[in-house]
């Protein structure tokens, strides 16, 4: 189980220093982004479709190298890490993908248990935790079904359960409530909030849902034209203030 | 009820079924080639061992009695294990293809033949036989079969090299096919690899999944190929025995312990080759991502 560690307050959970990203020879999707998220912070990331939210998230969950600049997680500059060290770092990150990315040949239970199997845990060690988590997200009766037999909302809950089952230090969620009803959305947000408050999990949620953003008083980062700017979570959309790329240290 | 953990890779698909067939066929051919190489090698040893140390002495202008005397003379030479003059019946049988069953004309000067067997390890007997016979006034020619044995050895050596080259070529082809199929499988399952990668799976963990999958595929395909080769050899042996009188010079296929070892090793090698190809291919593909 993840414990709060004293050094978590001494190093940034996420630090981007002058990060730019371009694919092949295309124009830069992200340009000179600086960002610091302290351990235990809760942040929203928003922006228009195609603005680069997913690309920024890919940098955060270490699926993509930046074209320029440095990405550091938990005090480790990723450009200097070996492949095994990068893998170890990824295990501290839980990701909820917008398109779920559940493995179709595995049941909901097996999908949720996947990160634990990757970590080398035995089923006898995690079976009860996984079953409890699936029950908590309302899938206790359907945990042995395959994703193709689950609704979009159910698949999304499986994806969220998979992301949080390891109680990660950093949780990254891309539109995590897009396919669930308002009640379940509220429950899931409570789950994210509890992980954040009780376990010190750093949470980054990418969303278009202003209602979701208003539920929690947390910094909101907007990405536009490849630049990242911070705006207040309570601000009305028309009153959002555009600033230059920020270096944020809450 | 507790269920076994599912494989993180889905069950085999049509691509792997096709690969199974290809690997099985390659293993079948490789096992047959290996068995042929071994049989050829065995035949070469048998033939050369048979003719080496055997001499045929031809006595011109000698009758049966003189031939027996010469044989006794030869038997007394150091290094000779045995010497035996051919009887008239044996000489007639040798010449029967040319003169028919009615026997030889009485006035035909036919040389008398003596079969001499040397003791093991004696390698200079031929000249000594000639010298001894000439010294006693015989007009004799000694054939050591060395030229024929040399030709046989050369021909079988070439045959062995061809068979071993075929085995090597088939093995290399199998590895290349498996590497290609692994790459295709990896591309087809990119989504799974991505999820595992992002979940923190190390390269060796992901490679291990593919290595196990392809090790088993190679092992099973190799077993089927080896069993088919075994069946084919059994059929060839049966056919060879039914026409034994006309296959004297052909390499005799057999199923002794070394042959069975070849059939057992074939699937293991196929599995190892598949595992190696899968491991290298997956690791190389993973190195292209962060």
Description of the structure:
The complex is a heterodimer of chains A (250) and B (290). With 250 residues, chain A is of the alpha/beta class. Chain A has two domains: 10-92 and 170-177 and 200-250, P-loop containing nucleotide triphosphate hydrolases (Rossmann fold); 95-167, no CATH class. Helix content of chain A is 31%, strand content 21%. Chain A has a six-stranded mixed sheet, sandwiched between helices. Chain A has a four-stranded antiparallel sheet with strand order 2-1-4-5, covered by helices on one side. The radius of gyration of chain A is 18 Å and the shape is globular. Chain B folds into two domains: 14-48 and 149-286, no CATH class; 53-144, Alpha-Beta Plaits. Chain B contains eight helices and four strands. Chain B has helices at 14-51, 64-75, 88-99, 125-135, 146-188, 190-198, 203-242, 257-286; strands spanning 54-60, 80-85, 112-118, 139-143. Chain B has a four-stranded antiparallel sheet, covered by helices on one side. The chains are: A alpha/beta (250), B alpha+beta (290). The interface between A and B is medium-sized, with 29 and 22 residues.
* Number of helical elements of chain A: 7
How much helical structure, as a percent, in the residues of chain B? 55-70%
- DSSP summary, beta strand count of chain A: 10
Number of domains of chain A: 2
Give the uncertain stretches of chain B in residue-range form: none
Stated plainly, the CATH topology of the largest domain in chain A is called Rossmann fold
* Alpha carbon gap, first and last residue of chain B: 40 Å
SSE sequence of chain B, one letter per element = HEHEHEHEHHHH
From the helix content, strand content and strand pairing of chain A, which structural class follows? Answer: alpha/beta
Mean pLDDT of chain B: 83
Topology:
The complex is a heterodimer of chains A (250) and B (290).
Chain A lengths: L13 E8 L8 E8 L4 E5 L6 H8 L7 E6 L2 E2 L5 H8 L2 E4 L11 H11 L4 H14 L15 H13 L5 E5 L7 H18 L2 E5 L3 H6 L4 E5 L2 E5 L19
Parallel strand pairs in A: 3-8, 3-9, 6-7, 7-8
Antiparallel strand pairs in A: 1-2, 1-4, 4-5, 9-10
Helix pairs in contact in A: 3-4, 3-5
Chain B lengths: L13 H38 L2 E7 L3 H12 L4 E6 L2 H12 L12 E7 L6 H11 L3 E5 L2 H43 L1 H9 L4 H40 L14 H30 L4
Antiparallel strand pairs in B: 1-3, 1-4, 2-3
Helix pairs in contact in B: 1-5, 1-7, 1-8, 5-8, 7-8
């Amino acid at each position: 189980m993840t414990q709060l560690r004293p050094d978590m307050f001494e190093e940034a959970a996420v630090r981007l220093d002058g990060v730019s990203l371009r694919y092949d020879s295309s124009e830069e999707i992200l340009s000179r982004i600086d960002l610091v998220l302290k351990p235990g912070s809760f942040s929203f990331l928003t922006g228009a479709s195609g603005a680069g939210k997913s690309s920024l998230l890919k940098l955060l969950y270490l699926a993509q190298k930046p074209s320029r600049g440095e990405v550091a997680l938990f005090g480790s500059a990723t450009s200097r890490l070996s492949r095994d060290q990068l893998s170890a770092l990824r295990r501290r990150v839980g990701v909820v993908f917008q398109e779920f990315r559940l493995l179709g040949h595995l049941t909901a239970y097996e999908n949720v248990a996947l990160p634990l199997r990757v970590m080398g845990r035995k089923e006898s060690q995690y079976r009860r935790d996984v079953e409890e988590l699936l029950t908590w997200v309302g899938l206790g009766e359907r945990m042995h079904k395959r994703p193709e037999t689950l609704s979009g909302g159910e698949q999304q809950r499986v994806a969220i359960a998979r992301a949080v089952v390891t109680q990660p230090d950093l949780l990254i969620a891309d539109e995590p409530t897009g396919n669930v009803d308002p009640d379940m959305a509220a429950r899931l947000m409570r789950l994210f909030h509890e992980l954040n408050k009780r376990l010190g999990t750093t949470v980054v949620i990418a969303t278009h849902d202003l209602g979701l953003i208003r539920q929690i008083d947390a910094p909101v980062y907007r990405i536009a034209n490849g630049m990242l700017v911070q705006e207040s979570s309570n601000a009305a959309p028309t009153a959002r203030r555009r600033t230059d790329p920020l270096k944020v240290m809450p | 009820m507790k269920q076994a953990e599912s494989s993180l890779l889905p069950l085999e698909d049509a691509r792997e079924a096709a690969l199974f067939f290809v690997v099985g066929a390659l293993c079948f051919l490789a096992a047959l080639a290996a068995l042929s190489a071994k049989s050829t090698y065995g035949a070469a040893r048998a033939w050369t061992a048979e003719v080496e140390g055997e001499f045929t002495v031809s006595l011109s202008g000698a009758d049966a009695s003189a031939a027996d005397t010469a044989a006794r003379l030869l038997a007394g030479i150091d290094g000779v294990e045995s010497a035996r003059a051919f009887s008239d019946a044996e000489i007639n049988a040798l010449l029967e293809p040319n003169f028919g069953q009615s026997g030889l004309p009485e006035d035909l000067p036919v040389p008398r033949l003596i079969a001499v067997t040397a003791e093991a390890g004696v390698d200079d007997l031929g000249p000594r036989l000639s010298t001894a016979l000439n010294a006693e006034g015989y007009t004799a020619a000694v054939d050591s079969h060395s030229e024929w044995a040399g030709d046989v050895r050369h021909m079988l050596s070439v045959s062995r090299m061809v068979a071993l080259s075929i085995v090597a070529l088939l093995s290399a082809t199998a590895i290349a096919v498996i590497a290609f199929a692994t790459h295709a499988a990896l591309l087809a399952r990119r989504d799974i690899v991505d999820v595992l990668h992002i979940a923190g799976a190390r390269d060796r963990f992901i490679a291990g999944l593919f290595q196990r999958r392809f090790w088993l595929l190679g092992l099973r395909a190799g077993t089927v190929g080896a069993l088919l080769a075994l069946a084919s050899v059994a059929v060839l042996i049966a056919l060879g025995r039914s026409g034994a009188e006309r296959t004297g010079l052909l390499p005799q296929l057999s199923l002794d312990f070394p042959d069975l070892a070849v059939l057992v090793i074939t699937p293991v090698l196929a599995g190892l080759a598949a595992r190696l190809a899968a491991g290298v291919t997956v690791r190389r593909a993973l190195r292209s991502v962060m």
